[in-house]
Amino acid sequence: MDNDDLYEALSIYAVPVKVHPQLNVLDDGKKNALNEVIPFTRDDLTDDPDVESYNDPVVPRSSSAVLSAMMAQSLGGGGNTIPREYAWYSEHEFRVGTLVECKGHIFQIDEVAPNENTANIYVYYLKGDDALEPAV
């Protein structure tokens, strides 16, 4: 299977993805009037002039570690949300910590797969960022 075939096979899972390459939680971030670092807000994403839009495959990331974390959280009474973790396949390169919107949620790139650029496709592991989610 060549590179184009692999990406085409994955493309059945493609969804709209908005990437905010200039909004990265690992950078110095946004600062207030007192020069203190403050978290990004939903408005920062909405007003981002550098947003990039793609249609890339995004699938749930399933592993025993994720399942264990979900079970520990539910058994320990640690809240009512299950961690949202996905694998995103893209032909575009981004940094860890970059904010990403897809599937109606906001994520950050948590890590890049070790085989970073196999077949010219980057595999990013996304982690949900509840701090930026609208209140229900």
Care to describe what's here?
- This protein is α+β, with helices and mostly antiparallel strands.
- The protein has helices at residues 3-10, 42-46, 64-75, and strands at residues 14-24, 30-31, 37-38, 52-60, 85-90, 98-102, 105-118, 121-128.
- The chain is built from three helices and eight strands, in the order H-E-E-E-H-E-H-E-E-E-E.
- The protein has a six-stranded antiparallel β-barrel with strand order 1-4-5-8-7-6.
Task: Return the structural class.
Answer: alpha+beta
Largest sheet: 6 strands, antiparallel, barrel
Roughly what is the average pLDDT, rounded to an integer? 79
By DSSP (H or I, 4+ residues per run), the number of helices equals: 3
Terminal Cα span: 45 Å
Descriptive keywords:
single chain, 136 residues, alpha+beta, two-stranded antiparallel ribbon, 3 helices, 18% helix
What is the strand and helix layout of this fold?
Elements: H1 3-10, E1 14-24, E2 30-31, E3 37-38, H2 42-46, E4 52-60, H3 64-75, E5 85-90, E6 98-102, E7 105-118, E8 121-128
Antiparallel strand pairs: 1-4, 1-6, 2-3, 4-5, 5-8, 6-7, 7-8
